[in-house]
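note to self: dont lose this again. the chain is below, predicted strucutre after it. 307 aa total, dont forget to put it in the shared folder this time
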Amino acid sequence: MIDARRLRTLRAVADHRTVTAAAAALYLTPSAVSQQLAALEQETGHALLARDGRGVRLTAAGEILVGHADAVLAQLERAEADLAAYATGAHGQVTVAAFATGITQVLAPAIGVLADSAPGVRLKVLDAEGDASVPMVLDGQADLAVAVEYRGAPRADDQRLVRFPLYAEPFEAVLPLHHRLAAAPAGAGPVAVAELAAEPWIGPYPGNPCHDVVLLACEHAGFAPQLVHSSDDFRAVVALASAGAGVALVPRSALSGVDLSRVAVRAVDSELATRKVFAAVRGGAEQHPLIRPVLDALRAAAAQLAR
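---
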């Protein structure tokens, strides 16, 4: 019989591509991970991994088993949710990984909603970049993620996750006050992203989901932005723009509370310049009596934000 714990180990190795990284995610030693994988290969009668440079890759048999592992692990999550509902109801802690603006926009308001709707649920909040929270959920470091769509994110049909759309917000152009497009004439529409093609740009580092949004919007407008200055702190991005160092696209909510007195902020014409925010849990956990109220509270906070 195949041990479900070993399936989880195989899934972690498939995600992280090295035994060492998978061991760190699972809070095990590399030796323990290797032993579990060897036992799983013995249980199945197939080689599941092959060396690939400094890492490992799944064999054809390993790919087949990982596909089944996702379904098995999701079903185990459902079983735990059903048992928790039967045993205790909604009393306990939920760990939520979310990026800073997501905490401000929906997670902090959701805590207030939960105080009334599910007082037995306690949240532990972990500040994580928009592309880091989903891997934390998959690795078991968090129960729920508030994340951003980005290149390389697990697909919407990935059985390991269940997603719940929360909100979408536009990016806006942040321009130095002396910029030729800073002053909008009466009746002027949004700034065309293509008009900023020749400018020096300020933007997040590669790997930040907002970096992907900027690249996609610029690529759709027919150019690759000349990223001269890099920062993941939008206060720093605005400060650099105010000094005339370049132009930027910044999510609207990230401009809240930032000194905008020395920059111009204008809407842009690109639908791709949008940050799409969603909540995600492991497949099967969406009905857990602790997680369900948190999802409901997040969606209520997102609905209020939209209004």
